[in-house]
Amino acid sequence: xxxxxxxxxxxxxxxxxxxxxxxxxxxxxxxxxxxxxxxxxxxxxxxxxxxxxxxxxxxxxxxxxxxxxxxxxxxxxxxxxxxxxxxxxxxxxxxxxxxxxxxxxxxxxxxxxxxxxxxxxxxxxxxxxxxxxxxxxxxxxxxxxxxxxxxxxxxxx
Amino acid sequence: xxxxxxxxxxxxxxxxxxxxxxxxxxxxxxxxxxxxxxxxxxxxxxxxxxxxxxxxxxxxxxxxxxxxxxxxxxxxxxxxxxxxxxxxxxxxxxxxxxxxxxxxxxxxxxxxxxxxxxxxxxxxxxxxxxxxxxxxxxxxxxxxxxxxxxxxxxxxxxxxxxxxxxxxxxxxxxxxxxxxxxxxxxxxxxxxxxxxxxxxxx
Lengths: 157, 202
Hints:
The complex is a heterodimer.
Chain A: H1 5-15, E1 21-24, H2 26-33, E2 40-46, H3 51-66, E3 72-78, H4 85-94, E4 100-104, H5 109-116, E5 123-124, E6 126-131, E7 134-140, H6 145-156
Parallel strand pairs in A: 1-4, 2-3, 3-4
Antiparallel strand pairs in A: 2-6, 6-7
Chain B: H1 2-16, E1 34-37, E2 42-44, H2 45-48, E3 54-59, H3 65-81, E4 88-92, H4 104-114, E5 120-122, H5 127-132, E6 136-137, E7 139-146, E8 149-156, H6 172-181, E9 195-197
């Protein structure tokens, strides 16, 4: 019996911190990211299959860790298909992603891309920041670590 | 104050430099191109499509999973519309330094693996993608011939569901082509889709 304890302990440690990936509609997404408060919401659109996205995610994670306690919230919105939710989940857990991860399942992209930002071509990575319920910044393309930090810093001021 | 302004302007310039400006709009004359096909021969808009009614230009590449999801549908488009006067021409605009999988040699491989029925051209200087204003892969431009010119009639996505060809509700490209073939105006001339960014040279 006692011999099994370490096994049970290890199993529970391995299973507990499992991070969820929530599949959301456009409305759910908007409710989570666009709020009429003074928190800056930094939303990154990415996919596990998108190399430049995966390369820049650590910059967002670093900024997230650095700005802990400040009025900034990071959300990563996966453009993977809803069928790939398990893939996204294992990526998120393997890479120990700290920020909230959503998977947007919103139907016809030709309709919802414009509803997020009309200047967005649909290419990823893309980043949008909201403050006071409004878009503070939209950026299509990948960030360098420095550029991301300075852009966020300007929005927090 | 002044330094802050300078910083803001510099920041804006930095942001702007990432995205190519301009490009073609629906109704514009499409710029001619002359690019190397995977068989080593050059293909040009003005030289190779004299007996066609138009051309379906598809900016695509080898590596992008999103582009891969559409490869079979691009082949189907070519098979369906080539005989009706609208053949497909695929163009890879990616910088192989940034994206090695998108090299010319790998284009040959990919074309063979998938059995592409259309030319697959390498936009080595990226001048064509810039002139057209392509932003992502896949990104399609349907051109209709008017005299010796090619006029842009549709820009955007192939359809509304990258994930599942069987679940498609809006076949944007086919609807545009069918309208052109029937001599009717194209109802939806511009659409958007999620895709990989074009890998521009540094």
